Amino acid sequence: MISSSGIEVTLNNAGLWKKFNSPMEMILTRKIGRKMFPNLEYSVDGLNPTAMYEIYLHMERMDDHKYRYVSKEWDDYARGDPITPIQKIKHKSGGQTGMFWMDGPISFEQIRLTNNPETEKKDHICLQSMHKWRPVVTIRKLENGDENSDFDEEFRIENVWFMAVTTYQNPAIKVLKVENNKFASGFRSTGNHKTVLPTRGIKRTASETFPTPPSSTSPPSKTSSNGHSPIAHPFHNPANFDFSMMGTAHQYLMNPYQNIWNYGYNMGKQMVQPVMNQWNMQISGQPRNMNHEQQGNPNSTNVPEFYGLNNF
DNA sequence: TCATCTTACACCTTTGAAAGGT
DNA sequence: AACCTTTCAAAGGTGTAAGATG
């Protein structure tokens, strides 16, 4: 889907995200934060090649419910915790031309998720456990290099959201993470990880942990986690699954917060979201005990049904 | 009592420096 | 000296499980 201004954003590893959507769970850790897996890696098209843009990512609470995992289902058993301010993370490349952004995958692999509201670490995003979250990309066009440009567009990818947890709830998600994340390979059935720990404290030598393969052991060239080079690669969406992002024109029509939300805030600083009002109170109702199909297709896919929020 | 969170841990990959060979 | 290969160690990314917390 292409926005009214012609900008199109797609998620490169959409197929992997789709695999996990039952729903996806992301681990939060307090001190150092936990990286997201699968990573969020986007491609963008339709920018003015010579204009300057910045790209931001933030997480958006999807509703005002707190969930728990019982009887193999997510149940919204309580009202959500008080909303914390939004933290928008600016892409490390900073302001770049449209050509730059369109030329390569846009990865936010440096982002870490934490549940520590007092964290001040760059690239850390504080989320609340047992709540539903959705990643949102903001593309900001810089007029004459001015960061206070009014041209912002937000993009949300259909079916890409997750439950924030401190420990995995759904065993199926845990299995998928172990199978697909190379750093968890020690937990695969072929791995050597011991559930009982008789050898704790004994550090092995590097040759034990990293046996030399028969060919060269020179460090591999730097690539992103999915093997892409930093330069653009063509990406094709999986068939029968539209992961292209929703255009903001649609959001403007349906989301009365959009103008408020984008009005006059400073990028890179914590934002305060608008208050709950009649509009989102009306649409924030969620069926309890959603089945998996419903969970995979939140009832408001184009627009978040809840923007949650503190006093404005 | 129980659900959730925190933390230390083993096991893994990645990275890059040092050492050795050509 | 310059370059390449091999070895090694540290850093960092995982899920696990025991204990702590409320």
TrEMBL record:
Biased-composition ranges, Polar residues, are 288-303
Keyword Transcription regulation found: yes
**A GO-annotated cellular component:** nucleus
Q: Which Pfam families match?
A: T-box
Q: Which residues form the T-box domain?
A: 11-189
Q: Where is this region: Disordered?
A: 200-233, 288-312
The record's listing under InterPro entries reads: p53-like_TF_DNA-bd_sf, T-box_DNA-bd, T-box_sf, TF_T-box
Claim: Cell inner membrane is one of the keywords in the record: no
Single Gene Ontology BP term? Answer: positive regulation of DNA-templated transcription
Keywords of the record? DNA-binding, Nucleus, Transcription, Transcription regulation
**Compartments it resides in:** Nucleus
Molecular function terms, GO-annotated: DNA-binding transcription factor activity; RNA polymerase II cis-regulatory region sequence-specific DNA binding
* Protein name stated in the entry: T-box domain-containing protein
- Source species of the chain: Caenorhabditis briggsae
